Amino acid sequence: MPLFHRDSLSRSSRNSIADTNERHGTGLFGHRASHSSRSSYSGTSSSASSAPSRHSSLLRGRRSEDPAITSARDRVYRAEAAEKAADKALYESRKAVQEARNHVKKLEKEAREEARLAKIKQHHAKDISKRAKPLGRKFIDY
């Protein structure tokens, strides 16, 4: 007996499968009819009007959708985009603030270092000035 024999299903189970296909009529990706229900459409198989529609049920639903629903969906999409842009702007703003604070800290550190060096220079200048004071005095002759 072959593995995929044509009469492997009983006649009653084939009828129940055909009945469920005829009742539901649509599948996940559009119209899906069984072979037995397709032959009941028309005697001519070449006519385009008797062929079932092959469009996705998702696209069909959008075309016949209420304008208020479409408008609401568009507003939600715009709000989501605006929120995303606001989040990005907030991130960029926080980043700019952090960079500015780091720059100010760097400037303060440089200013403290320059002040320290200026004090050292001032101290050295004072020492040199003390040493230079006695210069230029007149000698007393004995």
Automatic annotation (TrEMBL):
Q: From the UniProt entry, list the residue stretches annotated as the region Disordered.
A: 1-72
Task: Write out the biased-composition intervals (Polar residues).
Answer: 10-19
Indicate what this protein is called per its UniProt record. Uncharacterized protein
Question: According to the lineage, what is the superkingdom?
Answer: Eukaryota
Task: Give residue spans, biased composition: Basic and acidic residues.
Answer: 62-72
Q: Which UniProt keywords apply?
A: Coiled coil
Instruction: Give the residues annotated as coiled coil.
Output: 90-117
